[in-house]
Amino acid sequence: MTLVLRFGDVRLYDHDLETVAPGEWVGDVIIEFYYEYLERAAFPQLAKQVQFVQPAVACLLSNAPDAGMLAGALPPDLGSKQAVFLPVNDSTGLEPGGSHWSLLCFYKPTHTCYYYDSLGSSNLPHAQRTARALDAVLGHDSPSAFVQIDTPVQVNGFDCGVYVMVITHILCSRFASRGFDVADKPGDLSGWRLLHNVPHDLVARRRTEIRELILKMSQAQKAEAQRFADQRAGGVPRV
């Protein structure tokens, strides 16, 4: 097992990188990396308003039998966020495993959870359970509304995780460009629809882009480590 990249709180190994290769089912560490990338690099201006919940925490939120198990797992300021993204897995255990990813986005201004699933309603029971658990954690007086958004259907059995990352990126882009009044009425879905925004070729291209991004960051990190080692040894930095 070889470490490929350290980024924020993420440790990404060679077997994780293999899951973003063409034709592979994307593992939870890849989604964890991409959410960290969105928060730290792609949309740092949204950090105070958006929470990207890591896959393992979302799975724990959905399946933990005792809310006390969540203590310390969720950020203390979660209730102040305007939007919370949760990758939903169909695992019934306390760690992601399963066979399908979908996306849940809780939007505070409309007190609504928006659900995206590239296999129709495949993860609907898991997403609804996650939404109810989030209501409990946030101490909502009334349940949040739950709206399923029409989502482009994947054409294979392995791209669900890429759809989650692509859709999260699209919604963040809308927040960044239009602000959080993108859809301030519970019945207005115009800011949430994306049926024509996720063509199949975009999904395939994004998979490649994420893999290339990881490798580029890994190379830069290794070069920086080598420069540091050379400086400590008093040698000439390698180019």
UniProtKB/TrEMBL annotation:
Keywords: Hydrolase, Protease, Thiol protease. InterPro entries: Nep1/2-like, Papain-like_cys_pep_sf, Peptidase_C48_C. It holds the Pfam family Peptidase_C48. It comes from the Eukaryota. The keyword Phosphoprotein does not apply. Residues 10-171 form the Ubiquitin-like protease family profile domain. This is Ubiquitin-like protease family profile domain-containing protein.
